[in-house]
Amino acid sequence: MTLIDLANPTRFLALTARVLPWLAAATVILLTIGLYQASLAPDDYQQGATVKIMFIHVPNAWLSMFVWGVMSIASLGTLVWRHPLADVAAKAAAPIGAAFTFLALLTGSLWGRPMWGTYWEWDARLTSVLILFLMYLGLMALWRAVDDPSRAARAAAVLTLVGAINLPIIKFSVDWWNTLHQPASVMRMGGSALDKSFLIPLLVMAIAFTLLFLTLHLAAMRNEILRRRVRSLQMMQASRVAFSSEVGAGSRQETASKEAGAA
Amino acid sequence: MMMSLGPYASFIVTSYLAAAVVVIILIAWVALDYRSQTQRLRALEESGITRRSGRSATDMR
C-alpha cells in the first residue's frame, strides 16, 4: 500500500482497523517493561530517587516537539500536496501534543522543586516550552473557530509552520542562553552522558510513549474521518429537506393557481 | 520488595500519577469520540441518508 493509496479515507480506515490492535498491544508491553526497568534503576548520586521523574519527563518533552514536527509535515501536505488526510492528521495530533507538552511542563516543575528549589523559572528552555503549549491551545481554538474544515486547515497549516520556528529554539535554548535547565545529555556530540542503568529504561520509555502517540493519533484520525462523514451526511440531509420543502411549496402554489383559475 | 523513594517521594509519585491520569483521559477521549461518531452515523443511516457510494457509513473494510 503506497502513500497515494492512503489518500483514500476508506482505505486508511481499513488500515487503522488492522494496525491499531497491534500498536496498542506493543505500547502496553513496552510501557510495562519501561516502568519495570525504571523502578529498578538506581538512585542518582546527586539527585537521589528524584531521577525517576526523568523516565516520565524526558519522553513527554521529546514528544511535545515530535508531535509539532509531525503536524508541520502534515501542514506541508495540506499546503503543497493537498493530501486529503494531511489536515486530518494535523488536527488529530494537536490535542495529543498539547497533553504531552502539559505533562512535560508539569513533571519538569515537580522535578525542579526538589532539585532547583523552585517550581518555575522564566529561563529560555522552560519559557519556550510554555510558548509551545500555548501554541497547541491556539491551534485547537483556531480549528474550532472556523466551521469549514478546508478553510480552517489552511489557516492552521500556516500557523503550524510558523510555530515550527520554536522547535530549534527549544532544542538549542540550553546552548544559546544561560539556563537553569541542564544541557542535552542523551542526544549530544560525543555520545550520551547517561549511564546505561538510566539510559536503557529511558529509551524504552521514550519508544513506549512514541508508540502511545502513534496509537492515539491513528485512532484520533479515524474519529476525525468519521466526524467529516457525519458532517457530509448531515449536509445531504439538510439539502434533501430544503429540496422537498421547495418542491412542496411549488406544488401547493400550482394547485392554488389552478383552483383560482377554475373559480 | 518496597521501593524506597526518599524524602521527595511525593514529587515522584505525583509525576507518575499525573502522567497516568492524562494518558487515561486521552484514551477515554478517543474511545468516547469514536462511539459518539459511529452512533451519529448509524442514526443518519437509519433516517435514510446514505453515502453516494452506497456503502455503509460505518464500513471500515
What topology does this entry show?
The complex is a heterodimer of chains A (263) and B (61).
Chain A: H1 9-40, H2 54-81, H3 86-116, H4 124-145, H5 149-163, H6 166-176, H7 196-262
Helix pairs in contact in A: 1-7, 2-3, 2-5, 2-7, 3-4, 3-5, 3-7, 4-5, 4-6
Chain B: H1 9-46
Descriptive notes:
Chain A is built from seven helices and no strands. Helices cover 78% and strands 0% of the residues of chain A. Chain A is mainly α and 263 residues long. At the A-B interface, α1, α2, α3 and α7 of A face α1 of B.
> What structural class do helix, strand and pairing data of chain B support?
mainly alpha
Termini distance of chain A?
Answer: 70 Å
Order of helices and strands of chain B: H
Strand content of chain B: under 5%
Sheet with the most strands, sense and barrel status of chain B: none
Query: Cα distance, first to last residue of chain B?
Result: 49 Å
Poorly predicted sequence stretches spanning 5 or more consecutive residues of chain B: none
What is the radius of gyration of chain A computed over CA atoms, rounded to a whole number of angstroms?
Answer: 25 Å
- The total beta strand count of chain A reads 0
State the helical fraction of chain A: over 70%
User: What fraction of the residues of chain A are assigned to beta strands by DSSP?
Assistant: under 5%
Task: State the largest interface.
Answer: A-B, 41 and 38 residues
- Average predicted confidence as pLDDT of chain B: 86
Low-confidence stretches of chain A: none
Oligomer: heterodimer
